[in-house]
Amino acid sequence: MDIKEAKIKNKFQKLSAEAEPKPKLLKNCINAFIIGGLICDIGQFFTNTLLSWGIPIEKVSTFVSIIMVFLGALLTGIGIYDKLATIAGAGTVVPITGFANAIVSPAIEFKKEGFIFGVAAKMFTIAGPVLVYGIGTSVIVGIVYYIMSILG
């Protein structure tokens, strides 16, 4: 690249940086907080309802997780969760429903390639690394904890 091209490139980068819209950070944080909180409120509603039916707390936790993953997958499948995510941003990623969305979205996107090479192969493209590193980290922490409990 010669000097003239470098100057043009620098000028373009400067102009594009000036024209780039500034993110509405406060608004985005508020939306994430409200919608993420509403998702958690829905989970708490199911928890309170199941507890009022006399189901033990150990089972309620499992049932609520299943219900929330199902709702996240259902809303992703009918196209609502992605629209919600455009408004809430990280507010929809953090709860367990975000995990369901991360599994279902690639599966829907690659459905036309078939169940084996489409859905099955692409289903964990987003959530797969999270699972691998999450499980790997928990194993390492467990080993460190075990060693520390023996020594301490």
From TrEMBL:
The keyword DNA-binding does not apply. The chain crosses the membrane at residues 30-51, 63-81, 87-108, 115-148. Keywords: Membrane, Transmembrane, Transmembrane helix. Pfam families: SpoVAC_SpoVAEB (PF03862). InterPro entries: Spore_V_AC, SpoVA. The keyword Iron does not apply. It comes from the Bacteria. PANTHER family: STAGE V SPORULATION PROTEIN AC, STAGE V SPORULATION PROTEIN AC-RELATED. This is Stage V sporulation protein AC. It comes from Clostridium polyendosporum.
